[in-house]
Amino acid sequence: MQIKKLVSLPSRTGRHLQRYNQGFRQVVGCIPYRIRETNKSSFGTLIEDLEVLLITSQKSPRMMFPKGGWELDENIELAASRETLEEAGVVGLLGEKLGEWIFKSKSQEKFHEGSMFPLLVTEELDVWPEKNVRRRIWMTVNEAREACSQLWMKEALEAFVGQFTPRPRLEEEQLAASCRLALCRAEELRLSIGSQTADEDVDLYLIS
After folding, report:
1. Residue 22 burial by CB count (10 A; 0-12/13-18/19+): exposed, middle or buried?
2. What residue stretches are annotated with the Nudix hydrolase domain (predicted)?
3. CA atoms of 159 and 118, how far apart (whole Å)
4. Which tops the pLDDT comparison, 11 or 133?
């Protein structure tokens, strides 16, 4: 099934197809992300180059990543992509599952089992099923750490950013530069001493 075909359909509702695992309702979702092109680094993709997409709850301004129920007529990857399209209006390339978390629903006081995937966004849709009931906002990783209202999603975010390279600290860069400079000076001193020793050897030979 092409996931974009779902954009013209209303969001799924009801629980008659809902999956459960040992009594836990199974939900799946994505951390939609993009990589800013402004920063080029020899270290690869840095955490500072990432932006992630959060959405508001339908009933409050609380921020979260898109997620919803995994149903019996779909595999987990399709469910994650479908929920992300329905709630956030983006499609993209799905990565490997980040993990599973048991969490308590704030609205229902029940425990759920959540799975999260990274989704590299390739297209943002202008129209999607829940456009009128949610807002979507791109954030840096640090902004998302502060804004995300659900602890288990914050843990999923950390699992996601762990796949990327942190920016080297300024102190470490300065130390590396100092070490390189010290090595250069030591090499110059060694060469200088070697040259002076050679000159003294020649003088001694001539005197003798």
Report:
1. exposed
2. 23-161
3. 10
4. 133
